[in-house]
Amino acid sequence: MTILNRGERGAEKDSCDFTIEVSGEGMTSAAPDRTIITLGVVTEGKEVVPVQRENAAAISSIIEALTELGLPRSNVQTKSYSIDPQYDYEDGKQVFRGYKATHLLQISLDGVENAGTVLDTAAAHGANLISEVAFASSEAEKHQAEALAQAVRRAQQKAAGIAAALGVSLSAVPCKVQEIGGEGEPIRFKTMMAASDGHTQIEPGQLTFKAAVRLWYLFA
């Protein structure tokens, strides 16, 4: 909390010349209803064409298996693709080892229940890299607005308490409002290699949405 008067502000011109400054924070939580999975295939070999073909065959197998699960083809898209030369270092010298092809798919799911099934299916059809599993909410804006409203209410309550303690009156509305950050926190799971012979079970938990504000009230 900060109380400013005109003398302390010096030559700075502002409509908030006699103010009480307060801040407030808000937080809400919600169950996620969307899943975003990033996974793919890494292949290596001496010759670039065989490496590329092996990678493409595995990716095609994964996509076909996922569509057989009922996943719309539009929910699967390439996130990144690269072919890079690989080197070893022997006695301080760079020695060519071969090529590495990496193809990552981004898979979007409605709901969270089938994340494990998608991971297991992809792994069974050649996926050997799981980059990320993230959960999100289709109503993120609504939950963020609720957190922001909560932050404002808490700041207002602070200002009212300070004014009552000082025996002063506050302006009906703040003369200045500033949002000072806060956002939904996606829940993410990361791993390097997909390796599962059984059923993968992932718990989505809850998403947290945070907001914070700073308010300036005129007082008299």
From TrEMBL:
Species the sequence originates in: Paenibacillus pinisoli
Pfam families, per the entry: SIMPL
Protein name: DUF541 domain-containing protein
Signal sequence range: none
BP terms from Gene Ontology: DNA damage response
Superkingdom per UniProt: Bacteria
PANTHER family: SLR1258 PROTEIN
Classification via InterPro entries: 26kDa_periplasmic_antigen (IPR052022), SIMPL/DUF541 (IPR007497)
